[in-house]
Design brief:
The structure is a single chain. Helices cover 20% and strands 33% of the residues. With 136 residues, the protein is of the alpha+beta class. It has two helices and eight strands. The longest helix has 17 residues. The strands form three sheets. It has a four-stranded mixed sheet. The chain has a two-stranded antiparallel sheet with strand order 1-2. Strand 1 and strand 2 form a beta hairpin. It starts with a helix and ends with a strand.
Length: 136
């Protein structure tokens, strides 16, 4: 085969392998909603890189998770991605490792921004961090 055909075959195979990855069943990306099963009882869940939220589903899974959160009294939250940090072990990441995403979250009446750490590569039970609620 010539070089153009080899490159074409590699691109096709890469596209097929990426398209076959399954999203977390806890995330419904198409409707941009996430199914949270309540509020965590662990005061560190999602609020420290040592216990990140495992949303799965890539960036859209992260946004679906955050869109399902509300403030402690049901307030609408605002968030933005502050960057990546903190390598973690992950079979779904690059060479057994993945970086967490740090989102800054606030709501009316909050005392500044709150960092939420999300692992978009791995999936786990989704809960709201302590101090947040689940959107109705």
């Amino acid at each position: 085969m010539n070089m153009k055909k080899i490159i074409l075959v590699v691109l096709i195979l890469a596209g097929v392998s990426c398209a076959s990855k399954k999203l977390s069943p806890a995330i419904v990306v198409s409707s941009q909603s996430a199914t949270l099963i309540g509020v965590s009882t662990d005061p560190e869940y999602g609020l420290t890189p040592l216990k990140p939220v495992e949303s799965g589903g890539g960036p859209s899974g992260e946004r679906a998770y955050l869109d399902a959160l509300a403030g402690p009294n049901g307030e609408q939250i605002k968030y933005y991605r502050a960057g990546s940090c903190c390598p973690v072990k992950s079979d779904n990441g690059f060479m057994g490792s993945a970086m967490l995403d740090n989102y800054k979250v606030s709501y009316k009446g909050s005392k500044g921004e709150i960092s939420i750490y999300i692992n978009m590569y791995d999936k786990g039970e989704l809960r709201a961090p302590v101090g947040f609620t689940v959107k109705k």
